[in-house]
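Two proteins follow. First one:
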Amino acid sequence: MNESDKTFPHILLDNAQKYGDRRPAIREKGYGIWQSFTWQDYLDQVKDLALGLASLGFQRGDKMAIIGDNRPHLYWGMAASQCLGGVPVPLYQDAIEKELYYILDHSEAKFALAEDQEQSDKLLALKKEIPRLEYIIYNDPKGMRNYDEPFLLRYSHVQELGRKFGKENPDYFMNEINKGRPDDVAIICYTSGTTGNPKGVMLLQEAVIEAAKGFTGFDGLTEDEEIMAYLPMAWIGDHAFCYAQALVTGYTINCPEKTSTVVHDTREIGPTYVFAPPRIWENWLTQVMIKMEDAAWIKRKMFHFFMNVAGKVEKLRMGHASVPVGLNVLYQLGRFLVYGPLLDNLGMRRVRVAYTAGEAIGPELFEFFRSLGVNLKQLYGMTESMAYISLQKDGDIDPETVGTPAPGVDIKITDRGEVTYKGPGNFAGYYKNPEATKETLIDGYIQSGDAGYITERGHLKIIDRAKDVSKLTNGTLFAPKYIENKLKFSPFIKEAVAHGMNMDYVAAFIDIDYGAVGNWAERRHIAYTSYTDLAQKPEVYDLINNEILRVNKSLSQDNQLKEAQIKRFLLLHKELDPDDGEITRTRKVRRGFVAEKYGALIDALYTSQESVEVDATVTYEDGRTATMKANLKIENAENF
C-alpha cells in the first residue's frame, strides 16, 4: 500500500509489526506503579474493542463520544472507532451536562466511552434526552456495582464480546480497516465556543497524518521520544501530540496517575518532548516562585541573582550576540547551583523540544523557561488547522512572534490585518454547519479571526483576536490579550480581563491566584476566611498594584502602547469559571459574556467610584447555584 493511502489504523498495524513487544507505546501510572503497553498490546486492545463495538452494531460513519482523563483505554477507543470507519468525538472531562448535551446531540453520537463513574453519571443523566445514544461503555468499575442499565457496559465486557465476534468473523477487522480511505473523517473536535455554541471541526485522516508528519519532521522527532499525556483529550493539542504524532513516529506517551500528580510523575518519566499551553507554564512558574518564597534567605538571593544572569544570557542568545566570558562563567555556575536542580524538580532535565500554544504567552514567561535551558518554542495553530500553521525554528527564536510558516503552509495577511492560511492540516468543514464553513474557508484559505502581521525576519506576529483589537479614544492601539498576558506573568495573578475599547483609558479585572496569594498571606500572618475575603484585603491590593506597576513600566517602553497603561483596577470576588460561562474549557475569556454579566463593574471602573457592589450567581460542580454579594474596592494605578 502506498504511504499516501494509509490511515491511522494502517499506521497502527505497521507499528505493531515493526516494534511488536520491543517498545512501549503507552504507559499508565496506577496505585504508584507504571504499567507499560507495547505496540502489539496497543493493537490487540484496539482490535478486541473494535470487534466488540461491531458486535453491538457500530457501523461506518457512526460517532463515538469519548470523555475522561488521559487513559490508554480512551486512546484505544479513538483507534477502535477509526478501525471501523467511525468518528471519535472527544469531550472535555470537566464539562457540565448542558455543554455535553449540545455536543452529544449535535454530533449524533451513537456510542459513548467514559473513563469512570463520574463521567458515566453525566452521560446517564442525558440518556433520556438523547435517545440516539445507544450504548455507554465505562472502563473503571469503581462505584459501578449496582448499575444495571442494559445499555451500560463495562469496557472489558465489550472486549470479551469482541473476541467472540472475532472468532466467528475472522476477516472482519482487516476488511473494515482496508475499507478506510485518506479522505475519511478521522475525528470531530469541537471548538471552545467563545462567541456561541461550539462548532464541530471535521478533520480528515490525510490532514491529521500530514500535519503530524510535518511536526515530527520539523524537529527531527524519533521513536525514542517520551511525552506526558495530561492535557484534555478534547483539545486539538493533545490529539496532535499524544495520538497523531505518537502513531506517526512510534514514540511513547505517558498517562499520569491523576491531575494532581502530573509534576511528580513527570519527574519519574523525564520526558524529552513537552507540549503545554501558557496556563500550564504559568502554573509551573507559580510553583517555583512559591517554593522560593518558602526557601531560606540565602537561597532566595542566590535564585534571583542567577536568574538575572540567565535572563541576560538568553537575551544575548536570542539576539544572536556573543556572551561575554565573565557572564558565561556565571551562567555555567548557575546551571550547577540553580538551573539544573530546578529542571530536575520540574522533570525537564531531558527535554529536547518544548512547545507552547493555545494562546499568546507573555514574553517574560517565555524567556524565563528558555533562560533555564529549556528549548521552549512557540507554535501557532487552530483546531481547524490540526494545530499546524507556524513554528519557531531552533536558533531563530523571537519571544514576540510565533515563528515562520510551517512546512507546506502558506500564510496571507488580508488588507484589514487578519491572518489567513492554507496548509496540509486544513479541516474539511464544520459538521452540519455549511454557513460557518463558507465564512471560514474561502478559496482554500482559512480565515483565522486573529490580527497579525509578518515581520521583517519572516516571522508571524499575532496581536490579538481581530475582533478584540481596537483603540482608545486618543487613538492608542488597544490589544487586551497582550496586556493580560503581561499581567499573568505574575505568580499572584491567575486571570485578567482588560477593558478599554473606545474608552479614555485601560482598566482591568484581576483574578488572584488563590494558592499563591494564600501562601503569601499566611507567611505574613494575614488571616482570611475565603477567596472573596482574601481578594479584598488591603495588603493584597498593594501586592497586585506592584504587579500592575511592573506591567505599566513595560508598556511605557513601547511607543505604540505606552498610552495603554492600566489606570484603574479591581480584584474580582471569585475566580472566572467555565461552569459560570465566563471562560471556556481552554481558559479563554468569553469577553462578550463577561462584559454583559459584569457591566456594572466595568462602568464603575470608568467613574470616580472607590468601590462597587456586586451580586453574582455562582455554579457549583453538582449544578447547584448560589448568589454571592460583595463590595469590591477600585484602585488607581500609577502610570509612567
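Second one, unrelated to the first:
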Amino acid sequence: MNFSVAVLVGLLGQVTPENALDAKMRALFVPGGLTADDVARRAQDTSRELEGRTAALEGAEAQLAVARSGFIPKVTGGVSYTRLSEITPPTLGLGDEGRFLVTKGPAGPLGTREVFAAGDISFPVFLDNVALRAGLVVPLSDYLLRTVQQLRSAEQSRAAAEFDARVAKVKAGNDGRLAYFAWVRARGQQVVARQTLEQSRQRGEDIQRAFGVGSGSRADVLRAESLVEQARLLVARTDSLAGLTEAQLRLVMRAPDSEPLNISGHDFEALAPVPGTDDLEALVGRAAQARLELKSLDATRLALDAQRKTNWATLSPRLDATGNLLYANPNQRYVPNDGKWHFTWDVGVALSWQPSDLPVGLAQLKVNEARVRQTQAQLHAVEEALRVEVKQAVLALKESEVALESTHKAQASAEEGYRVRQELFTNGRSTAVEVIDAETELTRARLEALNAQLEARIARVRFDHAVGDDLEAPRR
C-alpha cells in the first residue's frame, strides 16, 4: 500500500501543532540538503575501486593497441661500418712465380698449344666496408593462427575491463545510497530517542508529584526512573549510531568534517508502486540481460578461449615471407669487388618449426583450458545466485510495503493509546504503570515506523540493483 506523505515525518506522529516530535522531525529536512542521488554521484566521483577499475581499463586498451600492432609486418633497418685489418692480397696463377698461364692458337700435331704468361691476377682488398640494410618479415602463419586470436582476446579483455569499471561505478552509487539512508535512519532514531527521554522525564515528574500527594506508590516512581534511564541509554546508542553512520557517509563521499551535512526531503515523497513483481521468471530474465557482472564474466571467458586458441600457434610450423634490401660499398655479391656502391635485393619464404616448444605450448594450453572452465563455472554460479538475489529483493520489497501499512496503523494506535492513558492518569483513572507501558509502546511504534520508511527505500535500491535497473536513474 502506498501512502501520500510529503516527508518522512508524516508517518512518525499525528500532525498537530502540539506534536513536538513532528516539529523536531521536520527540522531534520533542510532545503538544498543532500539527496540519495547526490550522495551516489559523489561516491562515484571519489570511489577508489572505480579509480582502480578505470586504470585497469586503460591498461586493457593499451593491450588492445599492442594486439592490433601484430598485423604490422616486421620492418628492420640499419647502417653498419666495418674496418678490416690489412692483409697481403693473394694472386691467382698456374705458372711459375704466381703468373697466370694462357694458351693461344690451335693445337699442334702433338696436341700442344703455345703458352705464354699473361701476368698476375689478384683481387683488391677494401679495408673500409659500409652497408645500408632494410628487411621485411611478413608472419603469414601468425596472421591466421596467432594474431587474429590475440586481437580477439584483447578485445574481449577490454570489454571485460569496461564492464568491471561500470560495475564499480554502479556499486559505488548503490553504496552511497545505502549509506545515505542508514545515516537518515540514525538521525531519525536520534530524534525519537531524545523525544522519548523528554517525555519520560516529564512523566517521571508527574508520577513523583502523584506519589507526593499519596496517589502513587514507590514502585511507580522507581519504574518511571528506570524508564528515564532506559531512554538515556537509547539516546546514547542513537548518538553513537548517528556519529558512526555520518562518518561512513563522509568516507563514501570523501566529505571533510568541516562540510555540513543536511537531509533533503526529496527522497521521502510517496513511493510509486513497482510493477511486475509477481513474475519472477521475467525479472530473472531481465536481470540476466542487464547485469554487468554476467557480461564481464562472459567477456573474460571469451578472452581466455581466444588465448587458448593462440596456444595452438606455438605447436604449429611457422611460415614467414622475407625481403631484404642492401646498398653497400663494397657489395659482396659483386666479384671481384670494385670499391663502389651497389644495390641488391632478395625475397623468399621460410618454414620453421621448433619441437622444443611443444612441452611449454602443451602445458600453457592446459592452463588456459582450465581457466576457461573455471570462468564458465563462475558464470554459471553467478547466474544461479542471481535467481536467489532477485527473489530476495522481491520478497524484501513486498515485506516493506506491508511494513509501511502495518507500522502506520500501529503507530496511530500507540499514539491514541498513549493519549488516552495520559488523560486517564491525569484524572486519576489510570495507573502510572499503564501510562509507562503506553509510552514504551509508543516509542517502539515510532522507531518501527521510522525503520519501515527507510527499509522501504533500501529495498528499492536493492531491487533496482538485483534486476539491473540501477544502470539508469533509480526508481522512486
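SUMMARY FIELD: Residues 1-18 have pLDDT under 50 and may be disordered. The CA atoms of residues 316 and 459 lie 56 Å apart.
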